[in-house]
Amino acid sequence: MEHDSSIVQEFIARRFQSFGAQVIDCFTAGNCYWFAHILCTEFPELKMYYIADEGHFVAGDDRSNIYYDITGKKSLQYQPISLETLRLSDKTWYDRLMRDCRN
C-alpha cells in the first residue's frame, strides 16, 4: 500500500511540531529511533531505516524514496539501510544499535 505523504506530514505537525522546540529537541537529541517507531506504528506501510553516516533513524517508504523524521519529510544525503536488511546482514551491529538506541 502506498502512503500519502501529506497525511504523514500533517500527523507530524499536529501531534509533535505544534508542541514546540522542546518536543522537537527530544526527538533530535537521541530519541529518533522512538519517533521512527511511532510513525511506523501509525502508518504500517512505512518501514524503519537507519542512516549510518548520520547515526539517525527515519521512517520511510523505499518505493517512493520518501523518508520522515520529527522535522517532516527528510531530504537524504546518504543511503538509508532498512532495519531488516541490517539485521540480516550484520547482526552484531544491529544488536548494538537496538541495545543503545531502544534501551
Contiguous runs where pLDDT drops below 50 for at least 5 residues? none
Give Rg in angstroms: 13 Å
Structural class of the secondary structure composition? alpha+beta
Order of helices and strands: HHHEEEEEHH
> How much helix is in the residues?
40-55%
Number of strands: 5
Textual characterization of the structure:
This protein has one domain. It has 103 residues and is of the alpha+beta class. The chain is globular and about 40 Å long. Helix 4 crosses helix 5. It starts with a helix and ends with a helix. The mean pLDDT is 89. Strands 4-3-2-1-5 form a five-stranded antiparallel sheet. It has five helices and five strands.
What's this entry about, in short?
The protein is of the alpha+beta class and 103 residues long. It has five helices and five strands. The chain has one domain.
Topology:
Elements: H1 5-15, H2 21-28, H3 32-42, E1 47-51, E2 56-61, E3 66-69, E4 72-74, E5 81-82, H4 83-89, H5 91-102
Helix pairs in contact: 4-5
Spell out the key features of this protein:
single chain; about 100 residues; alpha+beta; about 50% helix; globular
